[in-house]
Design goal:
The structure holds 2 protein chains of 2 kinds. By secondary structure, chain A is of the alpha/beta class. In chain A, 21% of the residues lie in helices and 23% in strands. In chain A, a hairpin with a 4-residue loop joins β5 and β6. By secondary structure, chain B is an alpha/beta fold. A 6-stranded parallel β-sheet of chain B has the order 1-10-7-4-2-3, with helices on both faces. In chain B, strands 8-5-6-9 form a 4-stranded mixed β-sheet. In chain B, α3 crosses α12 and α16 runs parallel beside α18. Chain B is globular and about 85 Å long. The relative contact order of chain B is 0.12. The chains are: A alpha/beta, B alpha/beta. At the A-B interface, α1, β6, α4, β9 and β10 of A face α2, α3, α4, β1 and α8 of B. β9 of chain A pairs antiparallel with β9 of chain B, so a sheet runs across the interface.
């Protein structure tokens, strides 16, 4: 390409400005629009709403009294699937006593993994979803590669609306992680004759362990 | 390469007589319309969301250069790359260059209508790359070597028997020899085959439903999770999207997400909503001495263990920046939900392939002439009854019938309209602008038609209107003109 020719960037920006019939505007000049979109109103408890919405979307939810119950609950669930005893667990999920019948591996998921266990950053009640942020201790492959994804959600993590989620993230002062996943149920497809089928490419099962404390 | 080889009329004739296609269209559109309606009824805020979405899009369009620059700066700050493509050819070249620099052999792709628009698969395959579509619908039509027939459900026209045949043909060499009959078996087999590709892929390409200027993120929504496996397991993640997809903030994108799934598939939300920002994070202070005591989801001192090593966004213009300045600016609000297709009596009768290019239905009938040239798609703006359902359901309130009417007007002005129609329209306009003459002709014509059709109540044929009466009857007028009836009841509604 001729090095003197204007770049694609210059040509696109020039045509935008010509169409808008004004001079260049840089990123400093734009200010988000005032006001906000409406939030879907709902009544009742946010945690109950979250549970109902997740179940509507074919996730299963089990309530636990404390984090100490997670190990046994995972063992029961894995046995019932049935799946092997090997788990891929986020390093961020600390302080859990795993029963000796289970083996725990850390790191990114591999194709052979059957079950993963992850924490979440938050959960959203309005339409039902768990939110994970990728990081060294929370690899995002755990959300997609294994057949079964088990998520530990603390009741205190459930927020009403997505705007609450963003406010909470901004309050951390952290830059955006590589990946933010909002997950509302197991993987599904309706691409063949509009027949809904779970387990298209991602997990066949999404199981939520809702810890009360 | 944009101009279809057959005429619109020929393609419509094929579609109308394809019974499998007709059955598939009935099933799909009926389901989507009912599910959407139920969810809209259940959300009192829906109208306010539409209005807010319209306002945000208009605000972005008025400040498009500023928002794109803001977005670009954030992507770069997070270690990603932004490429600007003025044309489809430039977009293809940019992506080929990225693949070459990455030393890639295999490319997986999540669903991206922009990649269809720029003809990406053909270009990649011509350059020797193995390209695998990972959205189940896109995968099916890739095996069938067909373009998508719907922007949300690309294989909507395929029956399960056709899918079974395609899988048998293409999966047999991989060791899958059973002839399948159940949808669950087909989904499962595709899952196994595609898993092999995700882990092998060098480059993963996805679309971008939204770009967030605040954070430099690209957003995709899927139900299958294929977009996530595509972008997370490949070494290089490329996002192909249009320049009009930028929105200011995370809160703004929330407004659009509330509208998108409800309008598209009649779901409250898609299963997976994913925000991607830059490549995997590599922390220079990586020490390797982590103790496993990290209880927070973020803020760790060491590097990501998965995710792509490179992140590229290709911003495709391809006529959009020109559209911004003219009568079709409002089309740039489109979020590609497909509601206008599902509610269009023409689309639901002829399916997507009849439209001849990648964007079908009302949105396609506007976009195709604007992107490929108004002289390249004469029939599309005219294949519309102007019933207005598309505008009623559009989540960003695009006045689609008005835009189609404007395209017809431009066709007329530029002489594209065929002379018999031109002449008839000119004659009609001449008469219609002279009320006395018009009413006089009506007072003669209406009783005449009434007399001719009195016996059967319908007219089977009419001079100069054979195209209309060949396939249906014209109900015979009851007697007087509308003006006479109006006068008789003193302008009161009966």
């Amino acid at each position: 390409m001729n090095p003197a020719a204007p770049s694609g960037r210059d040509r696109v920006l020039a045509q935008i400005r010509q169409s808008l019939r004004r001079a260049a505007q840089d990123e400093q000049a734009v200010a988000p629009l005032a006001g906000a979109g409406p939030r879907p109103a709902f009544s009742g408890d946010v945690v109950e709403r979250f549970v109902d919405k997740m179940r509507e979307k074919a996730a299963s939810v089990e309530r636990l009294a404390s984090l100490a119950d997670v190990g046994a609950a995972v063992a029961r669930y894995v046995a019932a699937v049935p799946a092997g005893p090997a788990l891929r667990v986020s390093r961020a999920l600390a302080g859990i006593d795993w029963p000796s019948t289970l083996t725990v591996q850390r790191g990114a998921a591999v194709r052979e993994d059957e079950t993963s266990v992850t924490p979440c950053f938050a959960a959203v009640a309005e339409s039902g979803g768990i939110v994970t942020l990728s990081g060294a201790d929370t690899p995002s492959t755990l959300n997609f590669v294994p057949d079964t994804h088990i998520v530990v959600v603390h009741a205190s993590q459930v927020v009403a609306h997505f705007e609450d989620l963003w406010a909470q993230w901004r309050a951390t002062g952290q830059p955006m992680p590589r990946t933010v996943n909002i997950i509302s149920g197991p993987s599904r497809t309706a691409d063949i004759e509009q027949t809904i089928q779970l387990g298209a490419h991602g997990p066949r099962r999404l199981h939520i362990l809702l810890v009360a404390s | 390469m944009h101009a279809p080889t057959t005429t619109f009329a020929a393609r419509v004739a094929v579609a109308i007589h394809d019974q499998r296609l007709q059955a598939a269209l009935d099933r799909a559109s009926g389901g989507f319309v009912a599910k959407r309606a139920a969810l809209v009824d259940a959300l009192p805020e829906f109208e306010a969301l539409r209005e807010r979405a319209r306002t945000v899009k208009e605000h972005v369009l008025s400040n498009l250069d500023g928002y794109l620059l803001r977005y670009e700066a954030e992507v770069v700050r997070q270690g990603g790359h932004v490429h600007w493509a003025a044309t489809d050819a430039e977009a293809r070249q940019i992506i080929l260059d990225i693949c070459k620099a990455a030393g890639a052999k295999t490319v997986t792709k999540g669903k991206s209508m922009v990649s269809e628009e720029i003809g990406l698969n053909d270009a990649l395959e011509a350059a020797g790359y193995q390209v695998v579509e990972t959205d189940l619908g896109e995968y099916i039509i890739q095996l069938a070597k067909e373009p998508p027939s719907h922007i949300i459900v690309p294989a909507v026209h395929k029956t399960r028997a056709q899918v079974a045949d395609l899988f048998e043909e293409h999966h047999r060499p991989l060791g899958y020899t059973r002839h399948l009959t159940e949808v669950s078996e087909m989904v499962n087999e595709a899952r196994q085959v595609l898993r092999g590709h995700y882990f092998k892929a060098d480059v993963g390409i996805t679309g971008g439903n939204f770009l967030v200027a605040e954070t430099g993120s690209s957003v995709i929504v899927t139900n299958e999770g294929n977009g996530d496996l595509t972008q997370t397991l490949a070494r290089v993640h490329i996002v192909t999207t249009g320049i009009e997809r930028v929105v200011p903030t995370l809160d703004d994108v929330t407004t659009f997400l509330r509208l998108l799934a409800r309008s598209a598939t009649g779901q409250e939300t898609e299963t997976y909503t994913t925000f991607s920002t830059g490549p995997r994070r590599v922390n220079a202070e990586q020490s390797g001495e982590h103790s496993g005591e990290h209880s927070s989801e973020h803020g760790s001192e060491h590097s990501d263990v998965d995710g792509p090593q490179e992140y590229h966004v290709v911003l495709v213009d391809n006529g959009r920046s020109k559209m911004l300045g003219g009568a079709f600016r409002e089309m740039l609000r489109c979020i590609r939900c497909g509601a206008c297709l599902n509610h269009c009596p023409v689309y639901t009768s002829i399916g997507g392939h009849a439209y001849g290019w990648v964007y079908p239905g009302p949105m396609g009938s506007v976009l195709t002439p604007l992107i490929n040239g108004i002289d390249n798609a004469y029939d599309l703006p005219n294949a519309c009854t102007l019933n207005g359902r598309c505008q009623t359901v559009c989540p960003v309130k695009i006045p689609l019938p008005g835009l189609l009417r404007e395209l017809r007007r431009q066709q007329f002005e530029t002489g594209l309209t065929p002379w018999p129609i031109r002449t008839a329209l000119q004659a009609w306009a001449w008469v219609a602008q002279r009320p006395a003459l018009y009413h006089a002709l009506m007072r003669i014509g209406i009783p005449l038609l009434s007399l001719v059709g009195r016996k059967q109540g319908v007219l089977h044929a009419l001079p100069l209107a054979g195209g209309w009466t060949d396939t249906r009857d014209l109900p015979a007028p009851q007697g007087g003109t509308f003006q006479q009836a109006w006068k008789a009841q003193n302008g009161a509604r009966s």
